[in-house]
């Protein structure tokens, strides 16, 4: 039975048997093949078997499908068995292929090194301490003590006036 072996950037591996002639691939639970990685779109693509060849079609995914770092919309898995869904490295294993975890690890290391080279601004480390937000605040907030002080002063005056009036009425 044909299958796909995948390795996520975190090192999680999995193997999926291709059990139907048409299968959807993605992160969402309603897909026939579920790859639980944030770089894989909810409905990333479709696998189909035409009797002689397995074809993968990207259905407009966010992070794309790549062969050696180049975005592709469709690929023949028997001709190009190594591909990447988002950031997840995949290898197609046909019916007659013998596959072990050591060859998968060697493929993952090679694919990671070749498809994720970054140049320019993306290669620079990000300094989070330089982040300032989305502009100045509209109005600086005070602690609200001025209003309480005025209210307290008026309350003391009212108490003093009440005592004075109470004493002057009684005499």
How would you describe this structure to a colleague?
With 171 residues, the protein is of the alpha+beta class. It has two helices and eleven strands, in the order E-E-E-E-E-E-E-E-E-E-E-H-H. Strand 10 and strand 11 form a beta hairpin. The longest helix has 26 residues. The protein is rod-shaped and about 115 Å long.
Gist?
This protein is of the alpha+beta class and 171 residues long. Helix content is 24%, strand content 27%. The strands form 2 sheets. It has a 6-stranded antiparallel β-sheet, with helices on one face. The protein has a 5-stranded mixed β-sheet with strand order 4-3-5-6-9, with no helix packed on it.
What are the key terms here?
single chain; 171 residues; alpha+beta; 5-stranded mixed β-sheet; 2 helices; 11 strands; 24% helix; rod-shaped
Q: What average pLDDT do the residues reach? A: 79
Tell how many strands the DSSP assignment holds.
Answer: 11
**Termini Cα gap:** 111 Å
Task: Give the strand order, joined by hyphens, for the main sheet.
Answer: 2-1-11-10-7-8
Gyration radius, rounded: 33 Å
Helix percent band = 10-25%
Could you give a short account of the major beta sheet?
Answer: 6 strands, antiparallel
- Tell me, what's the shape? rod-shaped
Which consecutive residue ranges, at least 5 long each, have pLDDT under 50?
97-123
Total number of helical segments?
A: 2
Helix-strand string: EEEEEEEEEEEHH
Task: Kindly estimate the percentage of residues that lie in beta strands according to DSSP.
Answer: 25-35%
Structural class: alpha+beta
